[in-house]
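stuck on this:

***
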Amino acid sequence: MRRIRLLALITLGFLGVTSIMGGIPLMMDPSGQLIHMPLSLLEHSPFRTFLIPGFLLFATNGLLSICVFMTALRRSKGYANLVVFQGWVIAGWITVQVFMLQTVVWLHFVYWGVGLVLIVCGLVLRRSERPDRALVEAR
């Protein structure tokens, strides 16, 4: 379980850092010019600038990932469920992004992979947290 937890921590750290690094420039320059993203990407979305998507990226995949990272690092009760939740958050984020942008690029597959890794790691960790039923029933 040590390796699974380490993989979850590395993946959460990667997601948190890259989401913060992606969200901040979008909030600082909602036109997208700072990171060479044209506003035309938002053509099929409800957004006219990158301000709200940047904030949501920063909060839901950046700060939340860092919070989940800290709970996993401390082995707080229920942290495995939070790892699974964060995996679903990024997978959902990328899926919605693909629909809104109406395009798929290689980076989408990377972050879908991140979501899958987090979901699987969290489920394995959650299973290891449960007391063995045979042991519980024997008591």
Remarks:
- The first helix runs from residue 2 to 28.
- The CA atoms of residues 33 and 39 lie 9 Å apart.
